[in-house]
Amino acid sequence: MTPLTRKSGDQYLHRKTAAYRAAVRRKLAAYHRHIQLGLIAQGVLHLLAATVPALVWRSFGS
User: Fold this and answer.
1) 2-39 pLDDT tens trace
2) Burial degree of 41 (CB within 10 A; 0-12, 13-18, 19+)
3) Most buried of 10, 20, 33, 35 (most Cβ within 10 A)?
């Protein structure tokens, strides 16, 4: 993908090749999956803290 500077603004994807647009879609999908997995992991940790607090505090190091 083409490196962009921080203040370059939006890209005009309709002017790029189909392969470039596919790479942008793939990159955005990877960001989306990364965020979703983080939210799921945080939810599991919340569930563990709410249902088994003794185990959580026993494993807490400080």
Assistant:
1) 787 888 878 888 999 999 999 999 999 999 999 999 99
2) exposed
3) 20
